[in-house]
Amino acid sequence: MFMQKIISIVILTTIFSFPVKGQIDSSGIYENADDFVARKLTYGGHRKMGKHKLLLNNFFNRPFITVIHNDTVHNILRNDIFGYRLQNGAEYRIVHRHDLRILNAAEYIIIYRRDVTHPPSGKTNVTNYYFSIGPYSSVQKLTIKNLKKGISSSQLFLEEIDGLFKYNTELAAYDKQHKMYVINWIYKKSVE
């Protein structure tokens, strides 16, 4: 029993002694794609550093995000920034005033998710998927047609997409074995 307490104290001390990547700047905004790639947050911070808050203002559909940083309030237009990171580590890219959740920032084909919680009447909540070829290209709806148009340089990739996917909804499948989205695994294998 005594030994378990000592081990628990050592583990807890170790966990809280070393800064975790993202813990120092756990929320803030990405001004552009370069900042996103470099993981550089503007007005970055965390709750424990004092008055630091990231307010999305989605409820009132305002065109700006409010960041309270070092006791100063900054209202930043959504159209002027690439995206933001929340306290919990979730990252979003802003496209046409829509907040798209970034699902796989480190992969070649970035997949985004947008949950529509108030769809047209008679429908249940809808999840829309989008993609971009890296963070610098434009975001498009994730469809077989758009994906094939976006990556037309690899004939093998195009053939694999045709052979494996019948419906657009299948394109957002995750490969647990390779720890990446299936379309990225296919792309990776097609260019090797």
Whole-number mean pLDDT: 84
DSSP summary: helix tally: 5
Question: Would you list the SSEs in sequence order as H and E?
Answer: HEHEEEEEEEEEEHHEEH
Largest sheet: 8 strands, antiparallel
- In which range does the helix fraction lie? 25-40%
Beta-strand content: 25-35%
Tally the beta strands.
13
Strand ordering within the main sheet: 2-1-6-7-8-9-10-11
Shape: globular
What is the oligomer described by this structure?
single chain
The secondary-structure class comes to alpha+beta
Ends apart, CA distance between termini = 54 Å
What is Rg? 20 Å
Parts with pLDDT < 50 across at least 5 consecutive residues: 1-25
Condensed summary:
By secondary structure, the protein is of the alpha+beta class. It has helices at 2-17, 33-38, 144-150, 155-164, 182-191; strands spanning 27-30, 42-45, 53-55, 64-69, 72-77, 83-85, 91-95, 98-102, 109-116, 126-133, 140-141, 174-175, 180-181.
How would you describe the overall organization of this protein?
This protein has 192 residues and is an alpha+beta fold. It has five helices and 13 strands. The chain has a domain of 90 residues. The chain has an eight-stranded antiparallel β-sheet. A three-stranded antiparallel β-sheet has the order 3-4-5, with no helix packed on it. The chain starts with a helix and ends with a helix. 22% of the residues are buried.
Notable traits:
single chain, 192 residues, globular, 8-stranded antiparallel β-sheet, 3-stranded antiparallel β-sheet, 5 helices, disordered N terminus, alpha+beta, 13 strands, 26% helix
